[in-house]
Amino acid sequence: MAQRGTINLVSVTKRFGETVAVDNINLTLPGGAYCCLLGPSGCGKTTILRMIAGHETPTEGQVFIDNENVTGLPPVRRGTAMMFQNYALFPHLTCLDNVAFNLKMTGVPKPQRRTRARDMLARVQMEAFSERMPAQLSGGQQQRIALARSLITNPRVLLLDEPLSALDEFLRLQMRGELRRMQRELGITFVHVTHTQPEAIALADMVVVMDQGHIEQAASARTVYAEPHTAYVARFMGGQNVLFGRVGHVAAGTVALDLEGGGRAEFQIDKAPAVGSLIYISIRRDRIHLAKPSHNEEKNSANTVAGKVRAIEYQGSWVKLTLEGVSPDDFVLNLPDSEFFAHPVKTGDVVNARWAPESVHILTGGAGQGDRPYAKGQN
Amino acid sequence: MQSRFSRLAPYLQVAPLALVLLVFFGIPLLVVGAVSFFEYDEFDIYPAFTFANYLDLWSQTTLNLYWQTITYAVIVWAITLVIGFTVAYFLVFHVRNILWQMALFLLCTVPFWTSNIIRMISWIPVLGRNGIINQSLVGLGIIDQPLEFLLFSDVAVVIAYVHLFTLFMIVPIFNSMARIDRSLIEAAVDGGASSWRVIWEVVVPLSKTGIALGSIFVLTLVMGDFFVVKIMSGGQSGSVVSALYNEIAVLQYPPAAASAVVLLIIVTMMVAGILRIVDVRKELAG
Amino acid sequence: MQQQQFGKRPWSFYFLATFFTLFVLFLYGPMFAIYVLSFQGPSGGLTFPMNGFSFDWFVALFGQQRTGDIRGSFGRSISLALMVLALTVIISVMAGVAFRRRFVGSTFVFYMAIASLIMPGLLISLGAPIMFQKLLGMNTNWYTTALGAQLTWTLPFGLLIMFAVFNRFNRAYEEAAYDLSATTRQTYQYVVLPILLPGIIGVALFGFTLSYDEFPRTLYTVGPRNTLPLEIWNMTTNVTSPALYALGTVTTAVSFVVITLALGSIALIQRRRLKHNLDGESAGASQIALAEADR
Questions:
Q1: pTM of the model
Q2: How many C-alpha atoms does A376 have within 13 Å on its Cβ side?
Q3: Which regions of chain A are under pLDDT 50?
Q4: Which one, of A97, A84, A80, A55, lies nearest residue A147 by Cα?
Q5: Closest chain B residue to A147 measured between Cα atoms?
């Protein structure tokens, strides 16, 4: 049986005038899961959140929560609660009155609603601040109040719009942990919109990567990171090098790919593609090594590319090496520091980088639905 | 000597303003206060210190006049508040295109920069005995005889006041409302508030500085008016300042000054009362 | 309206839109009535219907003296309004600059300005002639005492606008100018004032129109020769012909020309600034639109 708080978007499109913010999306967010909608600003993730909340109506398509069609229903009748980006705490009400707002609207008598609001404040460790005004609180405290205010409706889905973006780095990490703990305790669905990839990976059971109104991939954090579906996801999640090329020849389950920018990749593939077809692959940065410069013959062997060292960044336990001239994207290696310092190179050197055939991940979704073949990923 | 100049700079920069306000506002006001204790006859005024002018104010006629003025003020305040709030609410929350919003807002404010007297006079061909309204009503067969109470009556006075002063309510309320974060409205809707309760629980409390400022403007404008009540009532009604106008016409400065001082005290108390409820200083000073 | 296509509007929109339309009709309807009536034929009266169409009442206004000294008062009103405009801009900008820093007495000056704003105009008008004529033995004149009395009305508006303008002004522009070795005067001349120009035009608009139409404060301070609003005031009590409306049409037309000039130049400046921005990043425009949509 599907858990309470399952959200289904069926063929949902949202247009603002000429602009298509969300383009024919089908998506299921499992009940009781922590889901992150991830993408750059303008990708449509907030619009999806607001359509689930009932603050926008889809131009086309339907929204279901627990198999009930909620399209067009007002926010209160959806069993959802929203936490706004800037928290939207009522500046003229005390924290307690903010939290008790819903109870007041639904006609709960004053003593009862004060008790319940106090309990909720205690739950977010803010009972000491109940008579303060929101402007007297720090960002983190305001967020707790906002959380308490959302949760007082006993929602089956909590919608969070960039909840951590207004906090400084330290608080962000702390509140991140607290949100995750809260979600586990409550067991309700959290839908969290963010544009920062580490936040999504750290929090989410399910990550939905979006671009230009499309869903690029919806899967577990580990799948999205380690097995990206498209070049876009690989670049956006980071930690990957994206290469592409035409299929040269196919033999016994092995494909040879003539890479754009030079070099050849050879790897196993289940279903043999047609010769000449375009294939995108990704290789994790930490799975690439420098070939020993003396082994010149390797230059022409498979799964080896040549490039000029453009930047060397020491990162502590590893060294980040950026090569240019390998592909239209930058080509980045994360070398263990011991490996690097055993055979150091310097900026301007031409080096060979190689990887094992089994490190090649095939991006079955190609470039991605968005139209940005050469967009740089986030580093 | 740069530093000495820069320390003096604000004083030099504000001096012209302070000087104008002092010479043409502050001191004349003190003069009015002083003259209210003077003695007078048909020809001139004489420096003295008498409370006679104030005691003369304590008559049934004058009390009626004050009562009439305050009644006008309260009625006009209530009407302009309802209209001003509704118009501002429409502009801020229902016209989401910013260019349209600015255009419609300007439409409401442009009359401010035109002549008040002309705008008042423009009601004569509308409300008059043979005016547009009477002609239409008779033409439609709704009434047989033209309505006499439309022009030169209390109704005409109130209509003219509302016409002239509503924009003083719209502008400050619009400014406060425009500053309300939209997500607060959505949060209230999320919290189960109906449209009416959103207005009552969120929009009204957050527009209260604008409402207070608008109220101060409208109340002081009505209480300080003399020409609308003079023309539009056809001389049948009066106000404190229109009586004062008549006294000045016959050069009776001291009683006029005493009446002005009393009016100022009432107005000041009203404004102070509003300021006690709502702190508008932040709004005014930015 | 643009967002019509975004989805169905609630019934409350139509109710409020109707209310708004009625209010605008209420605001402008009567004014249009007198503009139309000012073109009455020679035998027409103060109300509808129109008895023909003519410019007779405009001719009567400026041609003969029977309606009073319209031509002279018109000239005085325009000159006075220009003087008030200039002084209001200069004094308000200076005061606005002064109020950017704390100084002793700033609260007092501020409250005096606010008091002057809400003070019934006739009361100000009452004190001045007693003080100048009776006590100081000076003459009142439209270009001296009336000018001063009008400034007590326009300056508070100018000051409040300057407050609003300086509040939105980003100090970084100023600091950048100082960093690039501009003097204080150069910084104001080349950076601060040009950026604030739209607000300053707004102050000028208030200065001109408030003075041009000012009546209660001018009433007892004007001296022997009237300004236009005072002529109109006299006419309301003794002229019962459409000439009164013709005068209304003329003076409103002047106001509208001034308003259009002011708002038009503000719009022009804003548009030019916006255009410069967009030229640089027209490619980014669609991105901005999308980001807005995702907001």
A1: 0.83
A2: 5
A3: 1, 371-379
A4: A84
A5: B187
CA distance C69 to C64: 9
Residue range C136-156, pLDDT digits in tens: 878 888 888 889 999 999 999
This complex has an ipTM of 0.89
> Residues 6 or more apart from C211 whose CB is under 8 A from it?
C80, C81, C84, C85, C88, C150, C153, C154
What gap in Å lies between CA B246 and CA B78, rounded to an integer? Answer: 29
Nearest-angstrom CA–CA distance, A187 and C74: 78
Task: Tally A–B CB contacts below 8 A.
Answer: 58
Task: Count other C-beta atoms under 10 Å from residue A286's C-beta.
Answer: 14
More confident residue, B96 or A40: A40
Sheet holding A19-29, edge to edge: A19-29, A7-16, A60-65, A68-69
Over chain C, what is the mean pLDDT? 81
Q: Which of residues 186-215 of A touch B (CB under 8 A)?
A: none
pLDDT tens per residue, range C171-213: 888 888 887 778 888 888 888 888 889 899 999 999 999 899 8
Would you state the structure tokens that stand for residue C231, as one six-digit string?
């002529």
In 10 A of CB A186, how many CB atoms? 17
CA triplet C242, C245, C246: central angle to 5 degrees? 90
pLDDT 10s digits, A83-93 = 988 888 998 88
Structure tokens at A345: 């190179």
Q: What percent of chain C has pLDDT over 70?
A: 88
Closest CA to B260 of C107, C220, C213: C220
**Among B224, B244, B268, B253, which Cα is nearest to B37's?**
B253
pLDDT of residue B279: 76
A·C CB contacts under 8 A: 33
The answer to whether the CB atoms of C124 and B24 lie below 8 A apart is yes
Asked if residue C83 lies in contact with residue C153, where contact means CB atoms within 8 angstroms, the answer is: no
Cβ contacts of C59 within 8 Å, gap of 6 or more: none
Of C42 and C18, the one with more pLDDT: C18
Nearest-Cα distance to chain B for A113, in Å, is 13
Of B16, B106, B122, the CB nearest to C33: B122
